[in-house]
Amino acid sequence: MIELIEVRKKYNRLEVLKGISTKFNQSECIALIGPNGCGKTTLIKSILGMVLPDSGEITFNNKSIFNETDYRNYIGYMPQIGKYPENMSIGQIVEMMKELRGSHLSFDEDLYKEYKLDQILNKRMRTLSGGTTQKVSAALAFMFNPLVYILDEPTAGLDPISAEILKDKMLLEKSNGKLILITSHLLSDLDELVSEIVFMQEGELLIHQTVDELKTKTGEEKLSKAISTILKEQLI
Amino acid sequence: MNRIIKFVILDILRNKIILFYTLLLAILSFSMFSLEDNESKGLLSLLNLILLNVPLVAIIFSTIYIYNSSEFIELLISQPIKRNKIWISLFLGLNTSLVISFIIGAGIPILLYSPNLIGIILIIIGCIISVIFTSLAFLCSIISRDKAKGIGMSILIWLFFSLLFDGLIMFLLFQLADYPLENWIAIIAALNPIDLSRIVILLQLDLSAMLGFTGAVFKQTFGTSWGILISSSLLILWMIIPFMISLIKFNKKDH
Amino acid sequence: MIRSPLFTILLIIICLPICAKNIHVGTKYPHQKIKKALSEVVDGDTIVIHEGTYKEGNIIIQKKITLLGINNPVLDGEKKYEILSIKSSGVIVQGLIIQNSGFSTLDDPGGIKIYNCDNVIIKNNELSNNFFGIYLQQANHCKIENNRIHANGVEEQLIGNGIHCWKSDSIIIVGNKINGHRDGIYFEFVTNSIIWRNISFANIRYGLHFMFSNDDAYISNVFKNNGAGVSVMFTHRVKMFNNYFINNWGDAAYGLLLKEISDSYILHNRFINNTSGIYMEGTNRILVEHNAFNENGWGMKIQASCMDNIIRENNFIGNTFDISTNGTLVLNTFNENYWDKYEGYDLDKDKFGDVPYRPLSLFSVMVESNSSLMLLFRSFMVSLLDKSEKIIPSLTPENFIDNKPRMHSVVI
Predict the structure, then answer these.
(1) B touches A, CB cut-off 8 Å, minimum 3 pairs
(2) Backbone dihedral angles phi then psi of residue B181, each to the nearest 5 degrees
(3) Does the structure show a pLDDT above 80 at C94?
(4) Which chains touch A (3 or more CB pairs under 8 A)?
(5) Which domains does chain C possess?
(6) Number of CB pairs < 8 Å for B and C?
(7) What is the DSSP letter of C33?
(8) CATH topology for A2-235?
(9) How far is CA B85 from CA B89, B248, C49, C324, in A?
(10) Which sequence spans correspond to the domains of chain A?
(11) What is the reported pTM?
(12) What is the ipTM score, two decimals?
């Protein structure tokens, strides 16, 4: 579904992506993990077209995304820190996004309702707490029935109950055959959800394997243990 | 595209500053016309005020607004919308609001007190100056990621065009007084949109006689239909080029 | 003894119709041609010209007669001839329409030309489309009264003056209306004359132009919309009272241009909407008093060559620049004028401001030294410069100052 071929990106002298090639398929839930500053967010933003790679190619359904915008109709994106116009209320943001994405669509308002956002529609964005802002981001990401979800640290700012609601939603969507791309450093959260692991370090892609493969290879039951084992192997 | 423009305009209207700006223009215009004993004097004083305040407000307000919209822009960029569309919509939205508030604040008094060709030209020039300095604001805010730096740059640009440039012209005129270069210096002056606007209005007010030889040069260069064509294309270039550069930069910018 | 001159005059008046005869010219009268009639008249006769158009080429009058037009007869020069040449003293020309004189720069033909004779009266005529309107050449004690003189001149070289006087004395020019000529009224070497209640407008060069003409007076005339205003040069003892100088607007236009003038009076005039109200060069000992300078580009331009002029009790209202000068020495006196740009106060209530007024703006001084600077006219920088100069004067001449500026305008 999404394919990256030799994607490179430099910020000034700092090389953030050093030739990443990989492929993400439908009905998968892929965890993009790695230490801070390893290039996860840059990779995601490259897929979204927010960051423009210096070289390499990214395709979506076998079509290059270079200078394209329509493919983003099939992506729901939840940023790490949601930034919204301060003067707008939740209701206005939702209205605007609906208008921009096309009012002809049917809207998936599950999260919107479960987070009870419809009760605080008039609140201005600048008055919201970080958690509530994340809820708005999550609700917006899931609202337009996309084929792909790209979630940057989705559970980071959320309280456990809200995080649980989100996880349930992700499971549901995965079973609907959607591709879910998550970055996270808290692997324990994702155990029951993730089907593939991508591990990045210093702009390089070290591991891309299915969870089952990993577990059988290392003999570990827990995902985090399996990863650390394989990392040690690689270092040796 | 229209939807984004609509959001931008609504957002700016919610901002009290633009209302304050409109009110300020209205008060200044009405008082200028009632203080001066004839309308052509009123127009002249108003011209000075417009050429000083309109660029200042346009460039600073726009720069701050663009920086404050960075979240909005980021939100839109991750959506299925072309980058061109976002930036152009922002430009059109800002210009529409500034031009509308200029027309309400200064245009209405001008039309009430001086409903003639010069009045209309003054209104058009006010609108053009608003657009030019908004365009420059887009350039400032795309060049620097840092808000303080960007605003500083926009103040410098305003200062340059409304004061320093004229100082430079004065310096050139004194330094080159012994050479017959007035025509060239006049042409250099025309490169500054504020000076060009001022001179166009002065020519219309028939003050060219007072401008002496250079006035004659200007009348020759800018009073004919060719001149009007040249000066309006100069102004149009000022409106478009800074924005086009900013658009190219915006398309390449990482968020 | 007292009665005898009176009696003589009475006798003359009673006798005049008896001794002098009237000869009628017109289609219904024995004489159809003016020239024919001229050959028959003697001094003191009157030729009465009736309605009609007379194309008789150059008519030369060498007898002391009166030409009297009834019902506006037209004398047409067919663009070939000088129409009336007066070569005898005491001629009166009245009630004629004189049109289409020849056009020649060689011998300057006029509608009416007076050659070396005195006491001629030209009255109530209309002179239209002549090269020169009325031309006086070494004529004394003549009176030009209530004539309407107009032409459609386009270029300076292709048209003469409305009323042109050369080497004459004691001329009275009153109540004429002149437009479309090169200069409305032109004086050269004309002395002891008076120009009174004329309207001179829309002439190509000057409304009034005079040189080397001492001891003349110009009273209650209107000069407006002329190409370059009024020009007064190389003359002493001029009196200009109650004139209007209006709308002389253009690159080199002046309300009043003074060049090498001395010992003169400019009183109670109005200078309205001229590029420069008064431009002075080499002008000495002139009193400029009770004049109004309104809405001019420059109220007065005083060149450095001017000395000992007194400018007092004038109103300067709505001028872009009140005064400008190209010199640093101030040899003229300003006193008790009203300046609308004056921002001072009057604490002692004597109707004069307590702080002196400096009528020179820094920018006007700079423009004098470099005229191209007008390019920056009305720019923000210039207003800043002027403001700072007002607070701390440093570049404008120190004593260019009105020590007693009025708080209210003078009634003129």
Answers:
(1) yes
(2) -115, 15
(3) yes
(4) B
(5) 57-391 (2.160.20.10)
(6) 83
(7) -
(8) Rossmann fold (3.40.50)
(9) 6, 12, 88, 56
(10) 2-235
(11) 0.79
(12) 0.83
